[in-house]
Predict the 3D structure of the following.
Amino acid sequence: MDVIRSVIAVLFGAYVAWAVLSEAVAHLRRRSRLIGTTALVVERADTSSRPGTVRRSTVFRVTTEDGRTFDVVSSAVTFPGPRVGSRIPVRYDPERPWKAERTGVIAFKLWVALPIAGFGAFLVVEGVRNLL
């Protein structure tokens, strides 16, 4: 049973570390292309992952430099979130403006990437150590 747990720890830890670091590296690579602007909060998208719970994401309208407009749902779930009608800072890649994100969300994701990747690496090390 310990062998199975150790193998699962190695695989899960490697996946977590890889997923988090690959997203952080992808963001850092395209960081120089990102354009900062303000977006208008147009609504709050409420979803339910299970009965009795509400997840609220901000839906904001981004207007690109060339005049195109996109309604984007933030990947952050917040309660209560920014008020409808307020303006929030966002950043977007001109090649993929429909993937714009709130500036604070980007910073938070980068801030937590290292500890989460460290946790994944810890699981890999512990799993390997238990296998030996």
Q: What stands out?
A: The chain is about 45% helix and 35% strand.
